[in-house]
Amino acid sequence: MNNNFGQSLRMTIFGASHDSSVGILIEGVPAGVHLPAELFTADLDRRRPKLHGETTRHESDTPHIEGLEDNQTTGAPVRITFYNSNTRSADYSHLVEHPRPSHADLVQRQKYGEEYNLAGGGIASGRMTVALVAAGVVAKQLIPEVAFTTELISVGGNDNPTTFDATIAEAARKGDSVGGVIECRATGIPRSLGEPFFDSAESIIAHLLFSIPAVKGVEFGDGFAGCAKRGSERNDRIIDAEGHTATNNEGGINGGITNGNDIVLRVAIKPTPSIVREQHTYNFKDGAISALTIGGRHDACIARRAAVVVEAMVAYALAELKLRR
Predict the structure, then answer these.
(1) Which of 17, 220, 249, 303 would bridge 269 by S-S if both were Cys, CB 3.0 to 4.6 A apart?
(2) 231-265 pLDDT tens trace
(3) What pTM was estimated for this model as a whole?
(4) What is the Cα 262 distance to its own chain's centre?
(5) What is the rounded (10 degree) CA torsion for 10, 34, 307, 28?
(6) Which helix (H) or strand (E) covers residue 172, if one does?
(7) What is the predicted pLDDT for the residue at 96?
(8) Chain-centre distance of CA 202, in angstroms?
(9) DSSP 95-138
(10) How many CB atoms lie within 10 A of CB 249?
(11) Number of Cα atoms under 13 Å in the Cβ half of residue 175
């Protein structure tokens, strides 16, 4: 199982939803970076379930940080661990023979063997994103010049923010789920990050974004909408010697290299596969399609809590690219 990413800033994610802990090991963090535990609080709180339609599983999410001296990095690997305490593995026992539609239950067992622990979704669980958020907090300390604005811009196909809570609540009442779209804007981007081909800025950022459970699409700048325009109306005209442009349809990246304008991207989050509503799907024990009712505690819209995870992975990608340069 390959749980690693990065060349200059290397991270390894560990644990699983119902293991004793989950966490992240980060190598390549320069010495002298200030990383007190309270630095993680704000972003971890953004991920925490609080509203109607969100999971009732509550963990303390207290980061236990190793590899520091007087809250400063020393050049040694930084290990951040979160201990799990609020698990209910029995809710998942029947999914071994009756896997959830559109979830990773079946493919994980096919790949890793019959003994693989599916409780809570294993390593494919949204629980793992607490480690990604922590990695993002570390990354942000390496790119202090960059500021982020990240928000949920669509829920269930509706782009009116005043209705998001009601849309999610309605899906929860019906035992169903909805997806959403998250937009992330990063300002203060250094120029010349990224390479033209396999290590383009888009490639590195998208790689990490697609590592987030439930992400099904990523677009930069005007994305797919730009395909309906002509070049004469879409091209970003250069307006000064610094390379700033009148528009930003490219989303801050040309030819795989950052151009100094804001990086703007959007991420599509699918509806949560785990729903209360009865579904009819293949039961491997019976050898036939039968009704499946899923227990456990799940979000009716995981996109609402995923915004900070998206931001974290964009930050990590930018920190990785900056250290490479």
Answers:
(1) 303
(2) 999 999 999 998 899 999 999 999 999 999 999 99
(3) 0.94
(4) 20
(5) -10
(6) helix 164-173
(7) 83
(8) 16
(9) GTTSPPTTSSHHHHHHHH-TT---GGGGGGSGGGHHHHHHHHHH
(10) 17
(11) 9
Distance (Å, whole) CA 210 – CA 190: 23
| Contact (Cβ atoms closer than 8 angstroms) between residue 269 and residue 178 | no
Cα 258 to chain centroid, rounded: 22
The alpha carbons of the chain give a radius of gyration, in whole angstroms, of 21
Residue 79 in tokens: 């290990």
Find the helix packing angle between 129-142 and 303-324, rounded to 10°.
40
Q: Supply the pLDDT for residue 169.
A: 94
Give the CA count within 13 Å in the CB-facing half-sphere of 204.
28
- Residue keyed to tokens 């528009």: 247
Contact 183, 150 (CB under 8 A): yes
Residue 5 near residue 208, CB atoms below 8 Å: yes
Q: Which residues contact 77 (CB under 8 A, 6 or more apart)?
A: 25, 26, 27, 29, 67
C-alpha pair distances (Å), 255 with each of 41, 46, 246, 251, 252: 37, 34, 18, 11, 10
Neighbours of 10 (CB within 10 A): 15
Residue with tokens 């790689």: 207
List pLDDT tens digits, range 196-235.
999 999 999 999 999 999 999 999 999 999 999 999 999 9
CB 14 within 8 A of CB 3: yes
Label residue 163 left, alpha or beta by phi (over 0 means left) and psi (-120 to 50 means alpha).
alpha
Q: How many residues does the chain have?
A: 325
Give the number of other CB atoms < 10 A from CB of residue 287. Answer: 8
Query: Which phi and psi (to 5°) does residue 53 adopt?
Result: 95, 0
CA dist 237 to 94, 249, 257, 300, Å? 58, 10, 17, 42
Q: What is the pLDDT of residues 53-92, one digit of tens each?
A: 667 666 778 999 999 999 999 999 999 999 988 666 556 7
Residue 30: alpha-carbon gap to chain centroid: 24
